[in-house]
Design a protein that fits this description.
This protein is an alpha/beta fold. Helices cover 43% and strands 22% of the residues.
């Protein structure tokens, strides 16, 4: 079927914004031209792609199917254009996906080194959970990701490189001083208020699975999206926080590690990329750091 790329481009912008007027602004064309393009595409495909009303625009089930295929294609095209333009003028571009924690406590020195070596390269970092990062990699929104492992969402990613091992730890302040020097079982730990990352994280999956292996139900006192906030709440005595050991710094001397009888399994940081997607020279150079 011979359908002009511009029609799919208009569809992508309308589907992404669910607004004909916003799509017209992004594409620098009139709203009537947007509407006409969508009508032409619907006629060529013999499908209704949008439900239009005076208040809002919604995708039909057929429109949602088309968007799932168009979105990664659009990102791939945009990525190719950006790589060609940047390589010619500024030294290239690298797009990295990683969580706030991984960026702050692990990636910053590598980003600094890369920037000093390639000052004209553009570095774009997208902070998301390790789970969301995999999704961005699969849809071509980033060149590579640095995430926690094990990560069940990485099963479809072809290239994974292990770059660091770490252990998770339980930390507390002096409100729990009676636990110093003791080794607690997971069952004993479950009697205390546990502070941890929310269920949309690989760390949450890891800890819940660990407790389940010991026939225990983990009911956290507080779930957050930030390890830094967990550390802050542990510092004021709200509970025992579960964090990666590489988050511990010299500024946290008011906190101590709560030891466990059962050794916490080792985890890893990995860098992952999609071999089916072309990598910029900047991204290739960055991969060589690991």
């Amino acid at each position: 079927m011979d359908i002009n790329y511009e029609l799919y481009k208009v569809f992508f912008h309308v589907a992404s914004t669910l607004s004909f007027s916003e799509a017209s602004k992004q594409l620098f064309i009139s709203q009537s031209a947007v509407s006409q393009s969508i009508k032409t595409l619907e006629r060529k495909l013999d499908q209704t792609l949008f439900i239009r009303s005076t208040k809002r625009v919604l995708l039909t089930p057929e429109g949602e199917i088309l968007l799932r295929h168009i979105e990664p294609a659009m990102h791939l095209i945009q990525r190719g254009e950006a790589q060609l333009l940047d390589a010619a003028s500024t030294g290239g571009q690298i797009r990295i996906g990683a969580s706030d924690t991984i960026c702050r406590y692990f990636l910053v020195p590598y980003l600094e080194r890369f920037h000093k070596t390639f000052p004209n390269a553009h570095i774009k970092v997208n902070n998301q959970t390790s789970i969301k990062c995999v999704e961005m990699l699969e849809t071509g929104q980033v060149d590579l990701i640095v995430v926690n492992y094990p990560n069940s969402y990485l099963s479809n990613v072809s290239s994974i490189k292990k770059i660091k091992t770490f252990h998770d730890v339980f930390i507390a302040n002096q409100a729990f001083h009676d636990l110093k020097g003791k080794k607690l079982t997971y069952k004993q730990l479950s009697q205390y208020p546990i502070l941890m990352l929310d269920k949309h994280s690989t760390t949450s999956e890891f800890l819940h699975r660990l407790f389940q292996q010991h026939q225990l139900d983990l009911v956290p006192e507080i779930e957050l999206t930030s390890n830094d906030l967990l550390i802050d709440l542990a510092r004021i005595g709200l509970g025992i926080a579960f964090i990666p050991d590489y988050c511990i710094t010299d500024t946290q001397k008011d906190l101590f590690i709560v030891e466990t009888k059962e050794e916490l399994p080792e985890r890893e940081l990995v860098i992952a990329y999609n071999e089916q997607m072309p990598l910029s020279k900047a991204a290739e150079e960055f991969l060589n750091y690991f």
